[in-house]
Design goal:
CATH topology of the largest domain: Rossmann fold
Low-confidence stretches: none
Number of domains: 2
CATH superfamily of the largest domain: NAD(P)-binding Rossmann-like Domain
Radius of gyration: 24 Å
Strand content: 5-15%
Number of strands: 17
Structural class: alpha/beta
Largest sheet: 8 strands, mixed
Distance between the termini: 61 Å
Helix content: 25-40%
Length: 449
């Protein structure tokens, strides 16, 4: 990329002053907070989304994303001030923008191959309006080398520009649901890496104006891509270790969680917490951005995926063990599943461990009731009956499985059931030491409280 502006302070002032128009492509649960923060800082942002209802909502100054503190007010204020607008026309937005920010989903196919189709579609729209000196920023998590091997060539081919006439930078989102604005504004340092030094420099200047925690510039876009993927892979592998240790609780006859907690008092030890499974739109998918994508072997990463994907089955088997001890067949049992979303307080089901757990229970003819205080759509749980938390006592269950530890479940009266239950706690969220229930806690084992 040819030098955009040799004076950093001039570029910074131009960006903050609204003289460098921005387009943010993707107004989902991470994209809308990002667009709103960009608008608050630079005052000139067009948000792009293919969903007309989302565009209408944002255009009306309303945030369609729930559970994000401060987002409603920020969207309303920036829209009313003319700092944020929205459209479904990506090519038109590209024609008016100088900085293009892509934050759309990147998942995997049924064969666990990275799916970049949405990113490629957005890149094509940008190419139609790309001008010399423009910078394209990728925030979506992508396999390493995507900017170099996919984004940059596609932009050049479809725009007709030489690669040195525009810049590409990878600046990964490092945000979590429920705290997106806080994270974007500077809970963590922003990582930036460009297709060349000038693209890196421009991205750094932009994000220094947005992120109060500062910016870490890395050697190139591929390094930045690897940083983001490595973060997710580290967590997946670490959780797999915790889950494998948790499965040894009965054989060791110890509280594995206690052992992990004490082991972690050593500074170089940081074992994560075991659980019923690993869900969400990030951790279960990012390992496949490395597995089978390069010549080097990835046996550890592959094993970790297998271990974490095995946890819903492990939870179900423990439930069956408890029922067997009570001389109850699963096909004759009534089971309540508490918590369906992949994370407490977040209304999302992507790769949620509750889905295979409920599917197994229904397939084996158990009568299944499901409870989730933050979920509105239960269509993913065919064969199960959604009920309110207050109705679980009347369901007269034989067993209860806690998959997601929503705060609301702390109010359950475990003495309020007509009989002793089989309880499997997948998140160490229940204190049933003083009850007569048969209890298995992931990481603690059978009735060890």
């Amino acid at each position: 990329m040819k030098p955009y502006n040799n004076h950093e302070e001039d570029l910074r002032e131009a960006f903050i002053g609204g003289d460098v128009p921005v387009a943010v492509y993707g107004l989902g649960k991470m994209g809308l907070p990002l667009a709103a923060v960009y608008a608050d800082v630079c005052g000139s942002v067009t948000g792009v989304d293919i969903d007309e209802t989302i565009v209408e909502s944002v255009s009306a100054g309303t945030a369609h994303v729930d559970g994000e503190p401060g987002l409603d007010q920020l969207v309303q204020r920036t829209v009313e001030a003319g700092e944020l607008s929205a459209t479904t026309d990506g090519q038109h937005a590209a024609a008016t923008a100088s900085i293009h920010v892509i934050i759309v989903p990147t998942l995997v196919t049924d064969d666990n191959e990275p799916d970049l189709s949405v990113v490629a579609s957005v890149v094509s729209d940008i190419a139609a309006g790309l001008d010399p000196g423009d910078v394209v920023v990728i925030e979506s998590t992508v396999p390493p080398q995507t900017c170099r091997e996919v984004v940059e060539p596609l932009l050049a081919e479809e725009s007709g520009l030489d690669v040195d006439e525009f810049g590409v930078a990878f600046c990964p989102e490092r945000t979590s649901s429920g705290r997106a604005i806080e994270d974007i504004r500077g809970a963590y340092q922003k990582v930036v890496g460009g297709s060349d030094p000038e693209a890196t420099r421009v991205a750094r200047i932009v994000y220094e104006a947005i992120n109060d925690a500062g910016v870490v510039s890395v050697s190139d876009a591929t390094t930045a891509e690897a940083v983001k993927v490595f973060e997710g892979v580290y967590r997946d592998v670490n959780i797999a270790l915790a889950n494998e240790l948790a499965k040894l609780a009965d054989d060791l006859e110890i509280d594995v969680l206690e052992a992990i907690e004490v082991a972690n008092t050593l500074p170089m030890c940081d074992i994560h917490t075991p659980g019923a499974g690993v869900g969400g739109h990030c951790i279960p998918y990012y390992p496949y951005f490395l597995i089978n994508q390069f010549d080097g072997p990835t046996p550890l990463i592959e094993t970790a995926r297998n271990v974490n994907d095995s946890m819903p089955e492990f939870v179900t088997e423990k439930l069956i063990d408890g029922l067997t001890e009570r001389n109850t067949a699963l096909s004759d049992a009534t089971v309540v599943v508490l918590g369906l979303t992949y994370r407490a307080g977040v209304a999302e089901l992507r790769h949620a461990p509750s889905i295979p757990i409920v599917e197994r229970l229904v397939t084996q003819n158990a009568e299944v009731f499901v409870v989730d205080p933050v979920l509105e759509d239960f269509s993913a749980f065919n064969g199960a009956t959604p009920v309110e938390q207050s109705e679980i006592y009347g369901a007269d269950p034989d067993a209860v499985v806690l998959v997601t530890g929503h705060d609301e479940f702390e109010s359950i009266d475990w003495d309020g059931f007509d009989r002793s239950l089989v309880v499997v706690d997948g998140r160490q969220a229940l204190d049933l030491a003083e009850t007569d229930h048969w209890v298995y806690t992931i990481g603690r084992g059978r009735n060890v409280q």
